[in-house]
Amino acid sequence: MSQIAPRSTVELEPRHQLTAEDRCDSCGAQAYIKVTMASGELLFCAHHGNRFKDKLSSSALEWHDESARLAEHV
What we know:
By secondary structure, this protein is an alpha+beta fold. It has one helix at 46-56, and strands at residues 33-37, 40-44, 62-65. The chain has a domain at 33-73. It contains 1 helix and 3 strands.
């Protein structure tokens, strides 16, 4: 019978939350989506993030989407 070692708890760095200072690279509106590419980061408002998602998601290293925060203000 084999024993399974207990998982060690690793404290992860908190995710960066986008702020009003983060602006969409396409139109300048508040960014709610941060896309990490091999060449750097792109910031998008919810509209442009959705518009470019199909084109960029296959090559993106990370797709960080905070657009659900928009529903909090309704």
